[in-house]
Design brief:
CATH architecture of the largest domain: Orthogonal Bundle
Structural class: mainly alpha
Radius of gyration: 21 Å
Shape: elongated
CATH topology of the largest domain: Arc Repressor Mutant, subunit A
Strand content: under 5%
Largest sheet: none
Helix content: 55-70%
């Protein structure tokens, strides 16, 4: 599911808690004023009614005083520009720095802290041995495995660190669903003491 679809579904069907609204507003506040305004009008945030591309385009004024647009849309920007600003804003919201607080507020964090408490009663050297194992032993799907290889993730410890820091979202083809698969595999790996 793309972020665009996720936001729309969340905004339409879920009963939001204040933590989610605060996290979403905080993330959206980091965007440029134009991107923020477009997302607010397109998705109906902050009590605004959701609008179409055309309706949003008519609301937004051109930046330049000397703008010479087509005669039909002198009062606003083009719908194509609205689409571009929307895409750019959503792309920025996908960045782990902005996405992490939103997912955390919904309880959808795809990764956990896999610390010493995960393997109870074992020594630190045992956990180090678990972390030194190659990611091949997790039997990950090919797409996820290739994405991790391209991200220079070679060992279980590297993967754990990438999950804990949120860097896993920066890897190409590593979306929310893929990161959940990785989190489940890691949790299974550590809970069984390396027997996968």
């Amino acid at each position: 599911m793309r972020l665009n679809d996720l936001l729309y579904e969340l905004l339409i069907y879920w009963n939001f808690e204040t933590a989610f609204i605060e996290a979403l507003n905080k993330s959206i506040d980091t965007l440029t004023p134009r991107e923020k305004e477009v997302l607010i009008h397109r998705y109906g945030l902050n009590g605004v009614e959701p609008k179409t591309l055309d309706a949003t385009a008519k609301l937004l004024k051109p930046v330049s005083k000397h703008w010479k647009g087509n005669s039909q849309n002198r009062d606003g920007i083009t719908r194509e520009r609205v689409r571009q600003l929307q895409a750019k804003g959503l792309r920025k919201l996908r960045h782990p720095h902005r996405l992490k607080p939103i997912l955390k507020s919904l309880g959808l964090m795809p990764y956990k802290t896999f610390s010493q408490q995960t393997v109870k009663g074992e020594t630190r050297s045992f956990i180090d041995r678990l972390n030194e194992q190659p990611i091949d032993i997790l039997n990950l799907p090919t797409k996820i495995y290739n994405s991790l290889q391209n991200g220079n993730i070679k060992t279980i410890g590297d993967l754990r660190d990438a999950c804990e820091s949120g860097d896993i979202f920066t890897f190409r083809n590593m979306g929310f669903t893929s990161s959940q698969v990785v989190a489940r595999k890691l949790e299974e790996y550590y809970s069984k003491g390396g027997d996968v």
